[in-house]
Amino acid sequence: MMWAAVVLVAMGIVSLVAAWWVSRSTGVRADATVIASDVGHLEPETLRDPVLRIRGRPDYLVRELGSERVYPVEVKPTREASALHESDALQLGAYMLLAEARYGAAFAGYGVVRYRSSEFRVPLTAELRRRCIAAAEGIRTARRAAAVHRSHELRAKCWACGVRVACDESLT
Questions:
Q1: Number of other residues whose CB lies within 10 A of the CB of residue 130
Q2: Which of 138, 144, 108 minimizes the C-alpha distance to 124?
Q3: Per-residue pLDDT reduced to its tens digit, 56-101
Q4: In this structure, are residues 169 and 150 in contact, taking their beta carbons and an 8 Å threshold?
Q5: Does the pLDDT of residue 18 top 80, yes or no?
Q6: Beta strand 119-123 pairing with 32-37
Q7: Which residues of 131-140 are buried (b: 16+ CB within 10 A; e: fewer)?
Q8: Which residue from 2, 35, 49, 159 has the fewest beta carbons nearer than 10 Å?
Q9: What does DSSP assign to residue 150?
Q10: Largest Cα–Cα distance in the chain?
Q11: Of the spans 2-6, 23-27, 103-107, 161-165, which averages the highest pLDDT?
């Protein structure tokens, strides 16, 4: 009987360590369940909103235990920052709009961005909604344009750009 207790305690310790590791490496809290993943843990779910004409796959879709509310998590494991980058806020905002369209009242009203050593819980506000819709419309407009001009002066951005080989405005 004593060995059974030892095994149960050992299993509990292993479970706690595993939950801590998952939380640290993914940004998903131990008191939540991953329901979809675009990073290889589960089947991804492509979310679509035909009204806003956007679609996307967050790194994780998570369901809170107890409340059953769903929220997206976006992980930037190499990013070191103490403030949320605007581009990450817009990306997460789009995922929140999509989660709201897909899950309705079950959408938690917020999403999470996880950097290497910081985490940001971001509410879906009217202002963020407006900025995301404007960004989506800007992208659609740019896709129809004959030419899209560079919008920055950052060599690193050009270096990481997927179209830099065809860009006549590249800084690299």
A1: 11
A2: 108
A3: 999 999 999 888 899 999 999 999 999 999 999 999 999 999 999 9
A4: yes
A5: no
A6: unpaired
A7: bbbebbeeee
A8: 2
A9: -
A10: 76
A11: 103-107
